[in-house]
Write a structure and sequence with these properties.
By secondary structure, the chain is mostly helical. It has 3 helices and no strands. The radius of gyration is 13 Å and the shape is elongated. It starts with a helix and ends in a 5-residue tail after the last helix.
Length: 72
């Protein structure tokens, strides 16, 4: 599996965490959330250019994420 795909999956996961963290705030910054979601979608689009099959993408993501240490 390519290093670029692993980096994209890690970036997608990091942005997901940032979105959840921002939405958990008492007054979330909606502009920041919108920007984060756009960045997450751009990463997802790049991933699907390399692995267009959704089921295969989920499988690859599970493999990559299972190798990475859990971070909170």
């Amino acid at each position: 599996m390519s290093n670029m795909i692993e980096r994209l999956i890690a970036a997608h996961q990091l942005i997901n965490r940032e979105i959840r963290r921002e939405l958990a705030r008492i007054t979330p910054n909606t502009l920041r959330v919108r920007d984060l979601k756009k960045r997450r979608l751009a990463i997802k689009d790049r991933l699907f250019r390399h692995i267009p099959d959704a089921a295969e993408m989920r499988r690859v993501a599970r493999v990559v994420l299972s190798r990475r240490p859990a971070t909170i």
